[in-house]
Amino acid sequence: MNKDRLIAWIQKTYNVEPEYLWRKYPNYAVFRHGHNGKWFALVMDVEKSKLGLAGTGKVDILDVKEDPGLVIEMVKHSSFYPAYHMNKENWISVALDGTIDDDKIASMVKTSYALTSK
After folding, report:
1. H/E segment holding residue 39
2. C-alpha distances in angstroms, 13 versus 84, 92, 95, 97, 109?
3. Most CB atoms closer than 10 Å: which of 22, 64, 103, 105?
């Protein structure tokens, strides 16, 4: 799933609009619950080097909250990274480069939504 399709899916599925909170980072889209204001997803583009990737340029990623036990296992696989700019025990970054199945990404957003709804 690419960044644009993911943003549209989140908007439709959860009836929320992305918030662009930082002038310095106009492509960082925050999604939060309406009832408690907690973030459940963050879509952004970051320098590859920030994720430990080789090369120059940016990559689109999704940050979501996940079960801490799963985060440890997931980051052992390509396309999953310790969360950029979030708690690395509870959040994970997912590359939006087509390597992860759309259903898996949707499932991760659903999990994050549930974990942050309390």
Report:
1. strand 39-47
2. 24, 21, 21, 21, 10
3. 64
